[in-house]
Amino acid sequence: MAGKLKFLIPVAVFAGMVAIFYQGLYKDPTLVSSPFIDKAAPAFDLPTLYDDQRRMTEREFRGKISLFNVWASWCPGCAREHDMLLTIAHTTDVPIYGLNWKDERQAALKWLLERGNPYEVNAVDRDNITGIDWGVYGAPETFLIDADGIIRYKHIGPLTPEIWAAEFLPRITSARAMLAGAGS
Q1: How far apart are CA 17 and CA 14, in angstroms?
Q2: What is the pLDDT of residues 96-129, one digit of tens each?
Q3: CA distance to 23, 107, 136, per residue, from 32 (Å)
Q4: pTM for the complete prediction?
């Protein structure tokens, strides 16, 4: 009996590991739940990209539904989503605020000059302090924040027209309905 157990235990452990890894093959890595959903945006106070004497805080989000986009000039996914951010900035009334993350100021300024700037304001988080507080895994990430400063959605990875239509627009419509209901 002991001889069979010596054989069966490693086989059972191996089979369990294979089952776990197999399930992981079919999970979308961009679907990472965030503990910040339906909670107030974490506090921060950072210099802005164009003027390091000016400060940006989470209070910037109050009174309007907005996006907070984590990006960097070195980020390939940020380059892929940039045209989508420009489209959102030019075709909607949803302001986009940026968190320039773990980047060099001059590289970020050059990047925006060459590609266009969809952001109302960019905070600079070179040392990743705010990124940690917001639970940032990597760039790009985009948070949808309602007019009360509550995070309503987080998307990891580049924004696409499909993601914008399927994930953001319904939530924006809902947040606007809640805002209109609160105003009446």
Answers
A1: 5
A2: 999 999 999 999 999 999 999 999 999 999 999 9
A3: 15, 29, 11
A4: 0.82
Distances (CA, A) of 123 to 33, 52, 75, 140: 24, 9, 17, 15
Tell me the C-alpha distance between 92 and 112, whole Å.
20
Please classify residue 106 by burial: count the beta carbons closer than 10 Å to its beta carbon, then call 0-12 exposed, 13-18 middle and 19+ buried: exposed
Domains of the chain, first to last: 45-183 (3.40.30.10)
Q: Tell me, what amino acid is at 170?
A: P
Other beta carbons within 10 angstroms of residue 9's beta carbon come to 10
Helix (H, G, I), strand (E, B) or coil at 25: coil
**pLDDT digit string, tens, across residues 45-69:** 999 999 999 999 999 999 999 999 9
- Specify burial of residue 140 (Cβ count, 10 A radius: 0-12, 13-18, 19+): buried
| Residue 13 identity (one-letter amino acid) | V
Q: CB of 160 within 8 A of CB of 87?
A: no
